């Protein structure tokens, strides 16, 4: 398994920070000032704890992902950056050039998260007036051009939406960045199968995730799968659920009504599936064992969290892994502290089960052996 964290370029807080998918940024509590220094703290902590990469969002509601992550490469050594971007807002040749530059100058630390865009109102803010089906068609053309350029080809192409002539890169990266793609609409499947390395789903209950993975496998049997979730993990289940209850108490009914009204206008099938899990209500938010839909009351996009003791959260991760999920993109409020709860609690438990290894190698595993995770700490030797 591989685990990735999240960089909150829309702001962070001890409470849930809303925003995304057509809704403005807001939170139940005070927002921590967004600075490169603070994001650097999160990125360095994620790297130390054993996360492979960090997702950075895209949209009108957050800072630009390309510029932010480029700055953070200077304060990290190994961490990869899963840069979300919207195809069609820039030319495919420029996107390939940017990807090549980032990949070479960062030492191979770029991953690409393709976001087709499910909210026409937000797309129009960026000058994009295509409808949803046309956006997916354009995404397919865009990724076809980008992938060919990153392989070193000279590309002449004329499609329904994009046209390039004799396009080529002066310098091709030795290893093209992997492409991550999510989409629950019928039009998303063929695009993912043709161009993506990893298909992403939001954190739906396991049975629904299994159906979605089965659909994609009919289109591309060897697809790699990832899932996007929040986490609230503590030494005990009671402590974790108490934290979920605290987050819920700090969300006003007015905020829920306002955000849900905005999200219901979304054209995204994935967003609709998230809304169906809770229906905008505070009751019945546990939609599957240890899967809590409270985040989605005020946040667009990924709206579910794994909640429980470290062992319980590890159990649920193992359950998703049994379906075929290999990559987990996680987050929590606040992102700095929650990274440590997961990294010091759940990752050692997964290592004990033989399901995870620290990406830096065995030299770092002893430092993350935590007693409450059921992992014994070896006694120091005389040499240490």
Compute the gyration radius: what is it?
A: 20 Å
Shape label: globular
Helix content: 25-40%
Overall mean pLDDT = 92
Q: For the record, give the distance between the C-alpha atoms at the N and C termini, rounded to a whole number.
A: 30 Å
**What's the number of extended β-strand segments?**
15
- Biggest beta sheet attributes: 8 strands, parallel, barrel
Strand order across the biggest sheet? 1-4-5-6-9-10-11-15
Structural class: alpha/beta
* Uncertain stretches of 5 or more adjacent residues: 364-384
How much of the sequence lies in strands comes to 15-25%
Short description:
The chain has 384 residues and is α/β, with parallel strands linked by helices. It has 12 helices and 15 strands. Helix content is 39%, strand content 18%.
Task: Characterize the structure shown.
This protein is an alpha/beta fold and 384 residues long. The chain is built from twelve helices and 15 strands. It has an eight-stranded parallel barrel with strand order 1-4-5-6-9-10-11-15, surrounded by eight helices. A two-stranded antiparallel sheet has the order 2-3. The chain has a two-stranded antiparallel ribbon with strand order 7-8. It is globular.
SSE inventory with pairings:
Layout: E1 2-6, E2 12-13, E3 31-32, H1 36-49, E4 53-56, H2 65-72, E5 80-85, H3 92-105, E6 110-114, H4 120-125, H5 132-150, E7 155-158, E8 163-167, E9 179-182, H6 188-195, E10 198-202, H7 206-219, E11 224-234, H8 237-249, H9 253-263, H10 269-278, E12 286-288, E13 291-292, E14 305-309, H11 310-323, E15 325-331, H12 335-352
Parallel strand pairs: 1-4, 1-15, 4-5, 5-6, 6-9, 9-10, 10-11, 11-14, 11-15
Antiparallel strand pairs: 2-3, 7-8, 12-13, 13-14
Helix pairs in contact: 1-12, 3-5, 5-6, 11-12
């Amino acid at each position: 398994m591989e685990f990735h964290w999240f960089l909150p370029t829309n702001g962070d807080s001890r409470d849930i920070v809303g925003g995304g998918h057509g809704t403005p940024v807001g939170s139940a509590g005070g927002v921590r000032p967004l600075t490169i220094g603070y994001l650097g703290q999160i990125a360095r902590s994620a790297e130390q704890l054993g996360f492979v990469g960090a997702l950075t969002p895209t949209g009108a509601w957050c800072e630009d992902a390309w510029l932010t992550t480029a700055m953070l490469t200077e304060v990290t050594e190994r961490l990869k950056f899963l840069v979300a971007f919207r195809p069609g807002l820039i030319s495919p040749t420029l996107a390939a050039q940017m990807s090549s530059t980032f990949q070479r100058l960062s030492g191979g630390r770029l991953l690409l998260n393709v976001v087709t865009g499910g909210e026409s109102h937000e797309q129009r803010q960026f000058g994009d007036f295509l409808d949803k089906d046309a956006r997916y068609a354009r995404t397919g053309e865009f990724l076809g051009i980008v992938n060919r350029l990153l392989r070193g080809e000279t590309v002449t192409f004329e499609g329904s939406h994009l046209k390039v002539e004799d396009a080529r890169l002066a310098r091709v990266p030795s290893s093209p960045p992997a492409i991550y793609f999510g989409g629950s609409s019928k039009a998303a499947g063929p695009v993912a199968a043709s161009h993506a390395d990893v298909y992403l789903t939001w954190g739906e209950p396991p049975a629904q995730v299994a159906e979605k993975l089965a659909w994609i496998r009919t289109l591309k049997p060897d697809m790699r799968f990832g899932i996007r979730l929040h986490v609230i993990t503590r030494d005990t289940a009671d402590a974790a659920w108490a934290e979920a209850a605290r987050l819920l108490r700090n969300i006003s009914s007015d905020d829920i009504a306002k955000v849900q009204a905005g999200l219901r206008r979304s054209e995204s099938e994935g967003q609709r599936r998230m809304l169906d899990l809770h229906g905008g209500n505070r009751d019945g938010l546990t939609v599957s064992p240890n899967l809590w839909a409270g985040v989605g009351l005020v946040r667009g996009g990924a709206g579910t969290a794994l909640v429980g003791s470290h062992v319980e959260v590890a159990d649920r991760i193992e359950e998703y892994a049994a379906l075929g999920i290999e990559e987990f993109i996680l987050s929590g409020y606040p992102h700095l502290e929650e990274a440590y709860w997961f990294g010091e609690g759940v990752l050692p438990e997964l290592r004990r089960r033989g399901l995870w290894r620290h990406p830096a190698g065995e030299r770092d595993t002893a430092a993350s052996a935590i007693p409450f995770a059921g992992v014994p700490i070896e006694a120091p030797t005389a040499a240490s």
